[in-house]
Design a protein that fits this description.
The protein is mainly alpha-helical. The chain is about 55% helix and about 5% strand.
């Protein structure tokens, strides 16, 4: 396992040096910018996230600039990305960072809402140069296929050190990301041009199709409600149902979820507005 892991590392680094993608956040060690892109890129292609990253860094170059803004402005800028609760968590995180500073939160970042194991390790690697793997779906997929595994949990506990030895954690993490998104893709992987194909176990684990169809989905209805509230400022409950023009059960479910995520609030006289 050790020999194969080290060989994979060397091949990925070699491939990455010749094929790495250029993005502005890859040229910085600013933890705020790393947190921004990692939040924007969740369930979003990097090329699209990059467009929003440019707008957000221009408008909010520091945690303080976002903390002093309003959720309504942030949601307006977020429009089109979906999963608006990410914007809420980012806004809440900016307030905590402004109050404490990154140095007081480092290295666990447990105080920051929305920061799980992957985002934590991404900040540690890209901003602080720590020897950690930022384990996302790309790295898990590559490891599963290359080693013929179904569960990678124990693998990373025992073998992460081989991927981090004598290389920059920034380089190996970005190599995994780029390789997984362009060669070892979730569907239609480019095995014919893969530099590690000869050693790959070619194991494709069976996974449930968990992608929710967007049309008519809860995510789409939530997005419609947020867009309407951004446009109107606040709206009567009855008018909202008329404007959204979706099944009332779907709208109620979306409203409950948005309220639970602290994105909207209900006021007197059946008025709804953004928190």
């Amino acid at each position: 396992m050790e020999t194969k892991a080290k060989k994979l590392k060397l091949e990925l680094i070699k491939w990455y040096k010749n094929n790495k993608r250029s993005f502005p956040w890859r040229e910085t060690t600013d933890p705020w910018q790393i947190l921004l892109i990692e939040t924007l890129a969740q369930q979003t292609q990097l090329e699209r996230a990059n467009e929003y990253f440019k707008k957000f860094t221009e408008k909010f170059p520091t945690p303080k600039s976002m903390a002093n803004s309003s959720l309504k402005i942030i949601l307006y800028m977020w429009s089109g990305l979906g999963y608006n609760n990410r914007a809420v968590r980012l806004y809440e995180a900016s307030k905590i960072i402004e109050k404490k500073g990154f140095d007081q939160i480092y290295p666990n970042f447990d105080d920051l809402p929305g920061v799980g194991p992957y985002t934590k390790n991404a900040i540690l690697s890209f901003a602080y140069g720590e020897k950690v793997l930022a384990i996302d779906t790309n790295i898990e997929r590559i490891i599963q296929r290359y080693f013929g595994l179904n569960d990678t949990k124990d693998f990373f506990k025992e073998n992460s050190k081989y991927f981090l030895h004598k290389v920059s954690s920034r380089d190996i993490n970005q190599a995994f990301m780029d390789f997984g998104s362009s060669i070892c893709k979730s569907s239609n992987p480019m095995c014919s041009i893969c530099p590690i194909e000869s050693d790959c176990s070619k194991y494709f684990s069976k996974s449930k199709n968990s992608k929710e169809k967007f049309k008519g989905s809860n995510r789409e209805v939530r997005g419609k409600i947020i867009k309407l509230l951004i446009r109107e400022g606040h709206i009567n409950n009855q008018k909202l149902f008329e404007e959204i023009d979706e099944d009332s059960e779907k709208v109620n479910k979306a409203l409950e979820g948005l309220k639970k995520d602290n994105l909207i609030k209900f006021k007197k006289n059946n008025i709804i507005e953004i928190t």
